[in-house]
Amino acid sequence: MSQIKTLVNQLVVKYGTNDPFELAYFMGVLIIYEPLGSALGYYNKHFRVPMIHINEDLNKEAQFFVCAHELGHFVQHTDVNTSFLKKHTFLSTDKLEIEANTFAIELLLPDKYFYEQTNTNFTIYDAVESYGVPTELLALKCIDNKKFYP
Question: Which stretches are annotated as coiled coil (predicted)?
Fold first, then answer.
């Protein structure tokens, strides 16, 4: 099991939910909705207060995924300012973004969800749509050490 999947499972067990908004609340992360133009969202700390900023113009499903992604940054990259790194350095943030995306995928689409849906007409694409997960990110999902490919 990957470290990220293990981390997600520990959080879900500890807090009893895989809802990113509820997890943020339980972990003391402030959620702020604001107009962000073309940006979907970002995570930062202001005077030691962790904050997730979400573009208020996104639909609810997209906001759900963005919250999960930014929560991934909070949990895994607490003291890293990816916005600063992108704008003011030549350091690549690709690894950090992949880790945050993987966190969001594992949080929103847990393995048990796939096992529970095997005898229904509900497909992986229905799940992806209901949680605002970009289809191209399904390749980050592993079930029983097998990759999912859209």
Answer: none
SS3 of 80-108: the string is: CCHHHHHHHCCCCCHHHHHHHHHHHHHHH
116 or 5: which leads in pLDDT? 5
Looking at 61, 70, 97, 129, which residue is catalytic? 70
* Gyration radius from the chain CA atoms: 15
Active site residue 70: yes
Beta-sheet pairing, 49-55 with 146-147: unpaired
Angstrom distance (rounded) from CA 7 to CA 72: 10
Nearest by Cα to 71 from 37, 33, 38, 100: 100
Q: What average pLDDT does this structure show over 97-101?
A: 91
pTM: 0.82
Taking the CA atoms of residue 3, residue 129, residue 60 and residue 73 in that order, the dihedral angle to the nearest 10 degrees is 20
- Give dist(CA 127, CA 29) in Å, integer: 26
Going from N- to C-terminal start, the domains of the chain cover: 3-147
